[in-house]
Amino acid sequence: MFENKIFLQNNHITIINDINAIYPLLDSAELIITDSNLKYYYKSLFAGKNVIVIPAGEKSKSLKIIEEILSKMLETNCIRDSLILGVGGGVVCDITGFASAIYMRGVKHSFIATSLLAQCDAAIGGKNGVNLNNVKNICGTFKQPENIFIPINMLTTLPDDEMTCGLAEVLKTALLADKELFYAMVDYTGTDWKRDIEFLNYIVSRSATAKSEIVAKDENDNTVRRILNFGHTFGHALESTLSVPHGQAVAWGMLKAFEVSNNLGLIGKDRIVEIISAMEKFGLKNEFEYDKEKIKEYFRKDKKRKSDIIQFIALDEIGSAEIIDVHFSKLDEIL
Ligand SMILES: NC(=O)c1ccc[n+]([C@@H]2O[C@H](COP(=O)([O-])OP(=O)(O)OC[C@H]3O[C@@H](n4cnc5c(N)ncnc54)[C@H](O)[C@@H]3O)[C@@H](O)[C@H]2O)c1
């Protein structure tokens, strides 16, 4: 069994390459939260356990589902010492973290991250959020998980388009903080990266490590951690107004962020061409029919907005980003 442990501040991340290693982890939980797809693919994992199954998909990131989970916690006598285990993608991670943070003012929680996006990003960092009135992650908490388990082999059942979505967040982290990872992706010559376990192990461990290192410097998202929102200003707006999957929306958001960055005199056109070619190689779509007015309206709901100024994450170079105050009009003109 391949096992790679990365121990980082409050995050205990374990990459697992043997699905059988998951069974004892499930035994340690008082309550398991998963979604309908995971329950379908991995029925035997959940047999005989105290499980709450939420409908798969972004719509489950709601206060209504949180209330259902809290009721189940109460009904099954979860107490302060109980461990709540989220088994799933970014949606399950977000709602498990949020429910665990508010039940009894905080019970322990861990994740078994099963989508590429959760393994490289959503499960890491202790930020948890749900949506309200179609605004992404507008309610949330900060609470670090006890453990994050990453079973790479569970990606074998993840649909191809979800793999592509996860790749967008890997690329984001590479562009922000890991130039070597970016060029490993550019140089990748395999025929099917989605089913190449060695490559997946590499990109997940690099991006999980890079994200953890950024989080360790600023757990509560007051300074440097904000760079992880690269591509998310435009991305969240597209995701919410057009129901585009998170990863594809972030990829499009990054394209727009390259343009803003270039207009600010930062990353050069030649580098942008290089990144776009990598995005195309990994199947990231770059064109959507969107409603400009709805996107502009969405920008104005940004959590970190000050009057008409937004804190924008701009790319200086591959592997380096900065936070810049930008007037909304600068974003509007890119649309
Ligand atoms: N909290 C954070 O720091 C953070 C960071 C990035 C993204 N997010 C959030 O994460 C969410 C996106 O995450 P996601 O793309 O994982 O979405 P998701 O949880 O909806 O998973 C995508 C789909 O893949 C299925 N799935 C997951 N693992 C599977 C497996 N092993 N086999 C078969 N099917 C599987 C799910 O059932 C779902 O249908 C968004 O809501 C986003 O806002 C949170």
Structure explained in plain terms:
This protein is α/β, with parallel strands linked by helices. Helices cover 45% and strands 20% of the residues. It has helices at residues 23-27, 36-41, 43-46, 63-75, 90-102, 116-122, 160-177, 179-187, 197-217, 232-242, 246-263, 269-281, 292-299, 328-332; strands spanning 3-8, 11-16, 31-35, 51-54, 83-88, 108-113, 127-132, 135-142, 148-151, 309-317, 320-327. The strands form three sheets. Strands 1-2-9-6-5-3-4 form a seven-stranded mixed beta sheet. The structure holds nicotinamide-adenine-dinucleotide. Nicotinamide-adenine-dinucleotide (NAD) binds at residues 35, 37-38, 41, 56-58, 61, 88-92, 94, 114-115, 117-118, 121-122, 125, 127-128, 137, 154, 157-158, 162, 165, 246-247.
Please write the string of helix (H) and strand (E) elements: EEHEHHEHEHEHEEEHHHHHHHEEH
What is the strand arrangement across the widest sheet?
A: 1-2-9-6-5-3-4
Helix content bin: 40-55%
Biggest sheet layout: 7 strands, mixed
The whole-number mean of residue pLDDT values reads 94
Shape: globular
Number of DSSP strand runs: 11
Question: Brief overview, please?
Answer:
The protein is of the alpha/beta class. 45% of the residues lie in helices and 20% in strands. A hairpin with a 2-residue loop joins strand 10 (309-317) and strand 11.
Write the topology of this structure.
Blueprint: E1 3-8, E2 11-16, H1 23-27, E3 31-35, H2 36-41, H3 43-46, E4 51-54, H4 63-75, E5 83-88, H5 90-102, E6 108-113, H6 116-122, E7 127-132, E8 135-142, E9 148-151, H7 160-177, H8 179-187, H9 197-217, H10 232-242, H11 246-263, H12 269-281, H13 292-299, E10 309-317, E11 320-327, H14 328-332
Parallel strand pairs: 2-9, 3-4, 3-5, 5-6, 6-9
Antiparallel strand pairs: 1-2, 7-8, 10-11
